[in-house]
Amino acid sequence: MIIRQALARQGRRIASRPAHPWRRSFASTFDIEGIESSLDSSLKETHSIESLLQNETSSLVPHIENTTHATPSISSNRQVAASYRSLRRQRNTTAHLGTTLTPHYEPHTLLTNPPPPSEISLPLLLASQSHLGHSTSLWNPANSRYIFGIRQGIHIISLDVTAAHLRRACRVVSGVTERGGIILFVGTRRGQHRAVVNAAAMSGGCHLFERWTPGSITNGHQILGRCRMKVVDEFDRPVPGYENDCLERPSLKPDLVVCLNPLENWVMLHECGLHGIPTIGVIDTDANPTWVTYPIPANDDSLRCVQLIAGVLGRAGEEGQRRRLERARKGEVTYQPAEFDIKKVEKGKGDLKTGGDEEAIHHAGGSG
C-alpha cells in the first residue's frame, strides 16, 4: 500500500513537469547527429578526391628500373598531352576547394613597388603607423605644432601635417634630380638598408646605411680624396678623357641629404648645415625639427613608415630624372656643366690614343 502511494505521487510529479527540457535535449541530439553526418560526408568526399589525385599522379610517373635507372620510351608529345589533361582534371576537381583571399597587407610592396607622391593619403599614413609619437615625457617642445593630441601618455602626430610636409619634400627631391643634383639617402638603423638602397637607385643618387664617418664633408679632401670620379654627359653616359683633370678637383658634395634617423646622425646634419647643404629628415616627437631644412613629422621607429617615406621620395626622384632626360633629348641641359681645362683634356685624350691600350680607353669613364 505504501509503495503504491509513493509511485502515484512520483507519477503525478513527473506528469506535472513541462516538456521543454525534453524538447531541448531531443533538438540538441538531432543537431549533433546532423553535424556528424555532414562531417562524415565531407570527409568521404575529401578522401575520394585525394585517391583520385594519387591515381592520376601515379599513372603519369613512369616506372624506373632500380639498376639502370631507365624509363620506358614514351613519346614526348603524348607525355606532354597527358600531363596537360591531368592538370586540367585536377583543376576542375579542386576548383571548389579552399578559400578566397581578400586584399591584405604585403610588406614587400613598399620596397618593390612604392607608391608615387600622387597617392599619398591619410589612410596610407595611418596604416603605416606614422601618427605614433613618443611618450609625453620625452617630447621636444619645438614639435608642438606637429602634435594632434595625447592618448594614453603618447603624443599623436597630425597626419594632415605629415602629408603636407611629405608632399613638399617630394617636390624638393624632384626639383633637385631634374637639375642633375646628387641626393644622398642615409638610414643607419637596423632594417633600413633595403629602403635606403632602393630609394637611391630610383632617384639615381647615393646611399649610406652604415655609420657616418665624421668629417666626410668638412674634411672631404682628406677622407674622400682617393675616391674616383667620372664625367658624364646629359644622358648620364660616361665621357672618357677627363681622368687627369678629375684628380685635381675636390671631392663632390651632395646637393641634398635625406636622413631617415636624424637622432643618430646629428654630426652629419651639423656638417651639412656648415656647408649650406639642404637636408630632409624624419622628425619624431623627441627630435629637434630645427636640425633639418625640410622636416617630415612622422614615426621614425616604425620600419613600415620609414619604408613608405623613403619609397615615396625615391619615386619623386625618379620622376625628376625622367623629366631631365626628356628635356635632354630635346637639346635642353637643366644644369650648369663643370668647367675643365680644354688643353689638359685634349692632352689626356691624345695620351690615351697614342698609348694604344684599348682596355685603358674602355675603363676611362668607369665609375668609382
Mind sketching the topology for me?
Elements: H1 2-16, H2 20-60, H3 76-94, H4 109-112, H5 122-127, E1 132-135, E2 147-151, E3 154-157, H6 159-178, E4 183-186, H7 193-203, E5 206-208, H8 220-223, H9 243-247, E6 256-259, H10 266-274, E7 279-283, E8 294-297, H11 303-329, H12 342-355, H13 358-362
Parallel strand pairs: 4-5, 4-6, 6-7, 7-8
Antiparallel strand pairs: 1-3, 2-3
Helix pairs in contact: 2-3, 6-11, 7-11
Explained architecture:
This protein is an alpha/beta fold. The protein contains 13 helices and eight strands. It has helices at 2-16, 20-60, 76-94, 109-112, 122-127, 159-178, 193-203, 220-223, 243-247, 266-274, 303-329, 342-355, 358-362; strands at residues 132-135, 147-151, 154-157, 183-186, 206-208, 256-259, 279-283, 294-297. The strands form two sheets. It has a five-stranded parallel beta sheet, sandwiched between helices. A three-stranded antiparallel beta sheet has the order 1-3-2. β6, α10 (266-274) and β7 (279-283) form a beta-alpha-beta unit. α6 runs parallel beside α11 and α7 (193-203) runs parallel beside α11. The N and C termini lie far apart (117 Å). The model is unreliable at 19-30 and 351-368 (pLDDT under 50).
**Unreliable spans:** 19-30, 351-368
Oligomer: single chain
Describe the global form: extended
Mean pLDDT over the residues: 79
Separation, N- and C-terminal Cα atoms: 117 Å
Widest sheet: strand ordering: 5-4-6-7-8
Strand content: 5-15%
| SS content category | alpha/beta
Order of helices and strands: HHHHHEEEHEHEHHEHEEHHH
Number of helical stretches of at least 4 residues: 13
* Major β-sheet profile: 5 strands, parallel
* Number of β-strand runs: 8
Based on CA atoms alone, the radius of gyration comes out at: 36 Å
Fraction of helical residues: 40-55%
